[in-house]
Amino acid sequence: MDSQKSKVQGKLRKGVFFPAAGALVIFIGLVAAFPDKAYEVLTGLLYKMGGSCGWAIELLIFFVFVGGLILACTKYGNIRIGGDNAKPHYSMWSWITMSICGAIGTGIIFWALGEPIYQYMGPASSAGVEPGSEAAATWAVSQTMFHWSFEQFAFYSVPAIVLGLLLYNFKKHVSYDPVADLAIGRHNRGLGNVFHFIIVFGMCAGVACSMGVGLMQIGSGIEYLSGLTSGRGLWLILAAIVTFIFVLSCVSGIEKGLKRMSSFTSYAFIFLLVAILILGPTAFILNMSTESLGAMLSEMPKRTMITNAMFPGDNWASDWWLQYVGSFIVYGPIIGVFLARIAYGRTVRQFILVNTFVSGGFCAVWCGIFGSMAVYLQSTGTFDVWAAVQESGMASTVYQLLDSLPFGKILIVVFIVTVCTSFCTIADPASSALANITVKGSSIEDEPPKKIKMLYGIFMGALAYALIASGGQDSVKSIWIIVGVPMTVIILALCISTIKSLAYLQKKKEANDPNIDFEDMLRVSGEKEEKE
Predict the structure, then answer these.
(1) Gyration radius from the chain CA atoms
(2) DSSP secondary structure string, 5-63?
(3) 381 in the Ramachandran plot: left (φ > 0), alpha (ψ -120 to 50) or beta?
(4) Cα(12)–Cα(17) distance, integer angstroms
(5) pLDDT number for residue 8
(6) DSSP conformational letter for 308
């Protein structure tokens, strides 16, 4: 029996990987072959789905955020991932840096400077502010802070609680099969396979899209500094280098790879924050950031649920907030596996509060400082950021913004390096987590096979290059909301399973019963549902 089990362990779940990979290659191939038509079709789908389903998605993220706060304040918050006697594997610093860097990617680095200008000059109609006005400036910075802070990280952490409990408390393999079983109250391999298919498809496309943006950012920076033309040739070289770095980190394991890279990236983040604060308009940045933080906190429910219902011609919600929420949904199931994996020994309360407020708070500060600087340059006439965006694009404008400061060239070099390592810190856990869930019999204590992690890393790197080389990058951005809508089923299953598992463990704890068994939890859960 053991020999048969050992033969199965470590084998790729071909019924999940190949259908998802094949569908993804076909999808990206069509986008590459017909970029204009793909953009038209996918953008049309985005706006239709945003108009019809946007309200439900916005309510979902709000209730997940509020539900997480409630859980953290109740007795369930005392339940410890790994059991009552579990001791954390990682120090608080290592845990926080890996949690932040493993969930940020390249988006916040780029859009903390870029988004405020778009929001400043083109706010949502329902915001009721004039483009380019004083009120629009506060709206722009506060909305950017909101998009990249607390609700995003709550959406990554709250549904992931059950993954940590299943992996460590119930000793289950790394798989979404137990989540499917627990959500519907009985064994159902078919639903688990559907979950895995959607996750692999969505996550590979999402990472490829993020990597594509990162490659263009790095390419624009090199072009700005050296004069080399940023195009397919440079992107290919950069894709090979970045893929090599994050695959090397991934196969090195968390201790030797991700832990060190996350720590380095965190120091780079801090350096850039301090440099911008000191070298930029310090007083204005502090004042604008404080005012914007107050505006964001006082209006969180309102900002979560912007639909522009009275402005049917304004697609702001679909172009901005709904696409962000869609990316949270797509990334959530895989980032959840990673966050759960490094959370051994932490209580549910610590897991929610650290991931939501420490990670989210860091991102809010980052957006406040960078966004305030961008608004200052535009509003004072020091640098016409909006004109530069229209003329040369946001990627190039970011480097012009940095170069307007003292020691600008040094800041640009650090910025480029940070973009690279920041992407690696999300691609590394993504590759590892995807390998985990598509490998048979994978235990949380074991690193998945290196060859499978390499397979995912190379696959995503190749997809990223194919996207930007074909000009299909803008089309695939719509995948966030298009894939995000069906993936909400997985998020709901995670939330239901989190509640059931916490209730079961709390009942066992109150009865001083150390016998924790997944099959028993399924039985108890099924009996409760039948009574109801």
Answers:
(1) 23
(2) HHHHTT-B-HHHHHHHHHHHHHHHHHHHHSHHHHHHHHHHHHHHHHHHHHHHHHHHHHH
(3) left
(4) 8
(5) 40
(6) -
- Alpha helices by DSSP H, listed for 305-393, are 316-319, 321-341, 348-353, 359-379, 385-392
| HSE-up (13 A, CA, CB side) for residue 506 | 15
CA dihedral 113, 118, 121, 127 (to 10 degrees): -110
pLDDT digits (tens, 9 = 90+) for 427-445: 777 777 788 788 776 666 6
Give me the torsion for CA of 345, 61, 467, 202, rounded to 10°.
Answer: 60
- Say which amino acid occupies 335: I
Tokens representing 529 are 């549902």
What does the DSSP assignment read for 65-131?
A: HHHHHHHHHSGGGG-BTT-TT---SS-HHHHHHHHHHHHHTTHHHHHHHHHHHHHHHS--GGG---T
531 part of a folded domain: no
Q: Nearest CA to 328 among 150, 81, 95, 115?
A: 150
The reported pLDDT for the residue numbered 4 is: 39
Name, in order, each residue with C-beta under 8 angstroms of 237's C-beta and a sequence gap of 6 or more.
Answer: none
Flag whether 33 is in a domain.
no
pLDDT at 7: 40
Question: Got the DSSP string for 444-511?
Answer: TTSPPPHHHHHHHHHHHHHHHHHHHHHT-HHHHTTHHHHHHHHHHHHHHHHHHHHHHHHHHHHHHHHT
Q: Is 287 left (phi over 0), alpha (psi -120 to 50) or beta?
A: alpha
Q: What is the pLDDT of residue 442?
A: 66
User: Which amino acid is present at 367?
Assistant: C
Q: Helices 177-184 and 518-531 sit at what angle, rounded to 10 degrees?
A: 30
Assigned domain for 63 exists: yes
How many domains would you assign to the chain? 1
CB atoms within 10 A of CB 462: 16
**Closest by CA position to 480, among listed 132, 140, 46:** 46
Which pTM value belongs to this model?
0.85
Q: Are 509 and 173 in contact (CB under 8 A)?
A: no
Decide if 422 contacts 273 (C-beta within 8 A).
no
CB atoms within 10 A of CB 332: 29
Q: Which residues of the chain are under the pLDDT cut of 70? A: 1-10, 103, 105-106, 185-189, 253-257, 441-447, 470-479, 526-532
**Is 4 part of any domain?**
no
111 is in which domain, residue-wise? 14-27+38-526
> What tokens does 216 get?
């263009």
Residue 373's region, left for phi above 0, alpha for psi from -120 to 50, else beta, is alpha
